[in-house]
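Re: duplicated header lines in exported structure tokens

Our pipeline writes sequence and tokens for each protein into one text file. With two proteins the header for the second block appears twice in some exports. Here is an export where it did not happen, for reference. First protein block:
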Amino acid sequence: MCIRDRLYGISAQLRRAIVSIPTNLAEGCGRGSDKDFGRFVQIAMGSTCETEYLVLLCKDMKYISDELYNRFDSNIQEIKKMLVSLLYKLKS
């Protein structure tokens, strides 16, 4: 498999994971209870963790610079904090 094919596969998976985060939050908002919404927030957290790994993989494979990785990682950590906070509020 050539580098272009690998990069395309990783970028396609990364796009799916990123889009899944707000999509699951939107779907969860349409549910009838905090418990149901919380389940979708947890799914969004899973997609955030998948995104985190794929960005790290891109850095390790030298597809992105350390500087770009650090910017992406900082945003990902902020999203994870927001999701944890939302989960905490839903369970209170």
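Second protein block, exported in the same file:
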Amino acid sequence: GLYGFFCILSSGGMIIFFGYVENYTIASLFILFFLIISIQKISENQKNFHALFFPTVTASFAILFHLVNGYLIFPLIYLWWISSEKNHYFKNALLSTIVGLAILIPFFIYFTFFSDVRVDMSQTHIAHPPFYPTSKMFSTKHISEISSCIFLTCLAPFYILTDSFFFGDKNISHYKNNKEFLFLILTASAFFLHAFTFHPLLGFPSDWDVVSFYWIPVSITAAYVIQVKSSQKFIFIPILLFSILVLVGNVYNLTKLNETKEMD
């Protein structure tokens, strides 16, 4: 619907990679494709390996474009569970794992040993994952940095979800029993886990783009919730308008050239 469309369009994550030469935009698109394909398969309520094949393939290619998409394994495991007959879960999970590894392993071997631009195993995050210090993981500074990223990337969607859970309808059984909603929440939680555990080595805000991928599942989840609240959609109009104004303002500033930096 129109509200859901503006919910996603108003998210600052739409421009977070503006002007980048890195492949973050492609990685974001694969997350979006994964969510769309998976939700479609869940809604079809198929209980066989065919329902798992395309989500598994999409997640595997997403990981190839950026390792942050490795967190898709959590919603993927849930998808394997709900899309399998009671006695076929491990069989389908094994087949899906084989499909995923068949895509990942050849590419990793190529880029590690045969590519002109080879992966340096002494530098890659695969061999040396930069985890945030446990003592600082839930510090005020760390949480404030995550909150700043939320304000930039998914302000309106995050507000909509917060309002729905704490100030909305008391009866949330519809969400608890909805597989699509639980799938989206699990995906968002997986990327929030990354935000809390990953150490942005260049500091905030320089290297925080790599932990902002949660804006995609958060925005889609909010778009889903706003459709359920059919009689109360109008209360979100102010926050949507404010978020769009912030987005447009950021876009306008990003289009300005800094002549001093250009000369440098």
